[in-house]
Amino acid sequence: MSQEWEDFSSGFAAVLGRPNVGKSALVNALVGTKVTIVSDKPNTTRTQVRGIITEDRCQVVLVDTPGIHRPRSPMGARLNETATEAASDVDLVLVVVDAASATGPGDKRVLDSTPAESFVVVNKIDRVSPAALLKRLEELAAWNKAAYFPVSARTGEGVAELRREIMALMPPGPAYYPAAMRADTTETEWIAELVREELLAIVRDELPHSIATAVTEVEERYVRCEIFVERDSQKAIVLGRHGENLKRVGTIVRQSLPKGYYLDLVVKVAKDWQSQARYLDQFGI
Description:
This protein has about 280 residues and is an alpha/beta fold. It has helices spanning about 25-30, 75-85, 105-115, 130-140, 160-170, 185-205, 230-240, 245-255, 275-280, and strands spanning about 10-15, 50-55, 60-65, 90-100, 120-125, 145-150, 210-220, 220-230, 260-270. The longest helix is centred in the last third of the chain and has 17 residues, at about 185-205.
């Protein structure tokens, strides 16, 4: 090991769990800034998203993953594969569960399939009473994992302690990313994700799984982002009356772009794209 990395540690930690337990919110809280989009819709995360913590001569690469679920489409099967693959070659697995929900089949599937050395992160403790949390922790103790951490990604309670414990487990090694880097997402990938995040917030329960986004052109200050849906009726929902939904999304996302950038949003119909490999490949799923 070079002199530069002699007292340095580094490693990877995969964040797993069923949909809607707050994995992405937890990653953002641990990193200290937004590196992955957040929504209350299942399977918002569709790829492995890496958030990076670098402090105290230690670097941790957090791998956010899609929620593990019972797949009903080729896309769902790919999301599960993406999640399970993330846990195959990491230094630590974080199993995230919802403090306010009973341990259901999805939680059990993840708990049963992860190593005994895993950390169990009981998220959303701000939503339960101390007595209910204690009962939840007693229930989860049956899996005999390495450690249990009650946290609230929303309020930050317990997050600093969890971060310290994750960092303490990292083995000696070099930094994989520059110290100032917080995510390995490209600018175009991030713009596409921001567009999808705002659309999910606007259309609510009407078509979350049927939306995909991709930046298809960048030229100087011009950015073209294409929004894909599966049917013409869904296109009308995304557009909104007189295009108001699309205008609202564009206004919000432009605030995150450098001043002077022009964001062109285009809605396209790709029939049944969730079941077609060429579209799943195109969207990086």
